[in-house]
């Protein structure tokens, strides 16, 4: 068992659990969902399988936790980015910009791996719920703007985000992709192309 410096037993256990979750995510991304087992996760984290069972009693429990974790960290970053924006257009741009930054860091890979993993129906349903929760602030910002058919408009520009994320994850320069994507978003959501503070920063 690796030595973990912690001032309390609770902190020690929290760090062990975090190490196991990190190991499970790494295995998911590199080897697929079927490889996420208590034995494999314990080996990757440097813990005995018996220790893993103190936190997760099955592969299903590990996958359920990864499902939550895949969104929790990204959601926190997205919430903070949007909170710093002044208006609805700026919030949309903040959502796109932060999503692309997270994509460049690989933060979306666990969720993408889960979506194609053939998970049990309960996990699939929860994954969809978490995805809808994640994009709702962006969709709400679009609804505040004076655009026709806001739900459809949100769906269409979300397609641009997915394409931009794929470009970044395939090695395109983050700054270039972000600048071009935000320019297209402004063109779609404003009659004049947008001149807000976030828009100016993206030029």
3D architecture notes:
By secondary structure, the chain is mainly α. It has 2 domains: 1-57, Arc Repressor Mutant, subunit A; 69-201, Tetracycline Repressor, domain 2 (Orthogonal Bundle), CATH 1.10.357. It is built from 10 helices and no strands. The chain has helices at 9-31, 38-45, 49-52, 59-83, 88-105, 109-115, 121-144, 150-169, 174-189, 197-201. α1 (9-31) packs across α6 and α4 packs across α5. The longest helix is centred in the middle third of the chain and has 25 residues, at 59-83. The radius of gyration is 20 Å and the shape is elongated. The relative contact order is 0.11. The model is unreliable at 192-203 (pLDDT under 50).
Brief digest:
The chain has 203 residues and is an all-alpha fold. The chain is built from 10 helices and no strands. The protein folds into 2 domains: 1-57, Homeodomain-like (Arc Repressor Mutant, subunit A, Orthogonal Bundle); 69-201, Tetracycline Repressor, domain 2 (Orthogonal Bundle).
The count of β-strands is 0
Broad CATH class of the largest domain:
Mainly Alpha
Q: Rg, please?
A: 20 Å
- Helix segment count? 10
N to C succession of SSEs: HHHHHHHHHH
Helicity range of the residues?
A: over 70%
- How many structural domains in the coordinates? 2
In percent, how much strand structure appears in the residues? Answer: under 5%
The low-pLDDT segments are 192-203
Q: How far apart lie the N and C ends? A: 51 Å
GO molecular function, one term: DNA binding
Protein name: TetR family transcriptional regulator
Domain HTH tetR-type: 14-74
Keywords: DNA-binding, Transcription, Transcription regulation
